[in-house]
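Protein data sheet
==================
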Amino acid sequence: MVTRADIGVIGGSGFYSLLDDATEIEITTPYGPPSDVVTVGHIGSRSVAFLPRHGRDHRFPPHLIPYRANLWALRSLGVRQVLAPSAVGSLRPEIGPGALVVPDQLIDRTAGRVQTYYDEGGVVHVAFADPYCPSGRAAAVSSARSSEWEVSDGGTLVVIQGPRFSTRAESRWFSGNGWSIVGMTGFPEAILARELTLCYTSISLVTDHDAGVEAGEGVTHEEVLAFFATNVTRMRSLITDVVAALPEDRTCPCPTALDGLKLPFDLPG
């Protein structure tokens, strides 16, 4: 029975399972329960924990996902590297449905979401200039290219509050700023991972052109889920490849994100 893992995968809309032979683990955290039970098993020689971001029955809308509990639960199991596949809309005409984007930047347009573990016991300022792990990004891009999946190496993900989609005016504004893709769940996930010194890599599947983009039309949640469902087998295969490509030793800056800072509590795991 596997009860600890080195790598965590947080599945997005339409991505509710990953491991065939796995142990289900119920976890409690100081921030309540995570979105669902965590399944732990192996992909090749690597131990992996999988957590469906919205729950297996998709009961959590983007603004109510227990983000703090999710990341805390993964770290408590030993996870130090996190892969985060998700469905996104494209803000650029040249990035069409079916393409992958591995962003290197994000814009937070959410409101009211708790985005830190350090809200009492002392001030902890964490650097976040580069939100994603460079080693994880390199592994994701390389694996996508090896599988002949069209992939953009870099780009800016703008995270909106949800659960509604953008208006055309908002979408045109996002696009006019040069941002690449729009989603609802990439924040505060990324900063919470950084505050736990986890490596975090977003792997974004474009399901549609956003409403204000050339050739873009209004999209429904059902259409997003249906498109993702047609690609979920391919996404699982890609995640398997990325897991194998992740470095076993972390030489990126992520493990040292809290160096020199006085923490009000010990980190789990």
Remarks:
- Residues 121 and 264 are 5 Å apart (CA to CA).
- Residues 7-255 form a domain with the Rossmann fold fold (CATH 3.40.50.1580).
